[in-house]
């Protein structure tokens, strides 16, 4: 069971059918402090718990996000919004680039649509739903490779750039939130290397102890969220609670 989420009652997870997202929903269902979980995915899924409410969304369809927000808002404010979506590769047309010679505009468009623009639009419609009377959190999964200060290897141009953009977008959210909602925190989170379809082609050089199961990643992330304070807002934070250079 994850650490207690400091009073979190109502949670919305985007990407609930993905490896990490599915594990996050399961961990949240094990926490008796959670009263309601809105589990968003692109395809219909069945709920296994009366506290779980599935909903459909598409990061490339803003109307689906605004409609979901309108429905969820009727039940009251949210204490935690988790954006557990991301795209690293997709067929031969979108693979991490090993050299600048491999850059393709289509890859940038796709990476930014899913990794930056989509989460930004989630924020547009769901930041206003955060609880203003108690501590609330908006967290989006990012990646260490999106840190310009931590970049030592280069490559992976489109993915790195899109995650760096996401980090900046959430930093902007944090600044605006501080003036509108003193109880809200906005962060990006690096889950580490997780054994999912996203990382599967790139696991050969990962030490076994550094390759997490989705369940381990979910526990790490929820523990980090539970310990967030106002000073963390706007930062990229790793699975172990350490801040990563922007």
Gist of the model:
The chain is of the alpha/beta class and 246 residues long. It has helices spanning 19-29, 62-73, 105-126, 157-180, 214-227, and strands at residues 10-14, 36-41, 52-56, 80-83, 136-141, 184-190, 193-194, 211-212, 236-238, 243-244. Helix content is 34%, strand content 17%.
Topology:
Layout: E1 10-14, H1 19-29, E2 36-41, E3 52-56, H2 62-73, E4 80-83, H3 105-126, E5 136-141, H4 157-180, E6 184-190, E7 193-194, E8 211-212, H5 214-227, E9 236-238, E10 243-244
Parallel strand pairs: 1-2, 1-4, 2-3, 4-5, 5-6, 6-9, 7-8
Antiparallel strand pairs: 9-10
Q: What does this 3D model show about the protein?
A:
This protein is of the alpha/beta class. 34% of the residues lie in helices and 17% in strands. The chain is built from 5 helices and 10 strands, in the order E-H-E-E-H-E-H-E-H-E-E-E-H-E-E. The strands form 2 sheets. An 8-stranded mixed beta sheet has the order 3-2-1-4-5-6-9-10, sandwiched between helices. The protein has a two-stranded parallel ribbon with strand order 7-8. Helix 1 packs across helix 5, helix 2 runs parallel beside helix 3 and helix 3 packs parallel to helix 4. The longest helix has 24 residues.
């Amino acid at each position: 069971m994850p650490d207690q989420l400091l009073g979190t009652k109502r949670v919305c997870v985007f990407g609930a059918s993905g490896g990490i997202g599915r594990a996050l929903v399961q961990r949240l269902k094990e926490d008796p402090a959670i009263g309601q979980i809105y589990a968003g995915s692109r395809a219909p899924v069945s709920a296994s718990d009366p506290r779980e409410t599935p909903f459909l969304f598409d990061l490339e369809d803003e109307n689906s996000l605004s409609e979901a927000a309108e429905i969820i808002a009727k039940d009251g404010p949210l204490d935690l919004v988790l954006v557990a979506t991301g795209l690293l590769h997709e067929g031969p047309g979108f693979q991490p680039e090993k050299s600048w010679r491999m850059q393709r505009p289509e890859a940038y468009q796709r990476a930014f649509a899913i990794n930056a623009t989509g989460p930004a639009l989630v924020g547009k419609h769901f930041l206003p739903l955060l609880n203003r009377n108690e501590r609330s959190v908006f967290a989006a999964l990012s990646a260490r490779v999106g840190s310009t200060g931590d970049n030592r290897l280069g490559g992976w141009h489109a993915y790195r750039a899109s995650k760096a953009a996401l980090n900046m977008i959430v930093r902007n959210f944090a600044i605006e939130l501080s003036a509108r909602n003193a109880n809200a925190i906005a962060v990006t989170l690096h889950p580490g290397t997780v054994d999912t379809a996203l990382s599967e082609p790139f696991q050969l050089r990962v030490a076994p102890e550094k390759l997490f199961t989705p369940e381990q990643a979910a526990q790490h992330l929820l523990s980090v969220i539970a310990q967030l304070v106002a000073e963390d807002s706007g930062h990229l934070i790793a699975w172990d609670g350490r801040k990563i250079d922007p």
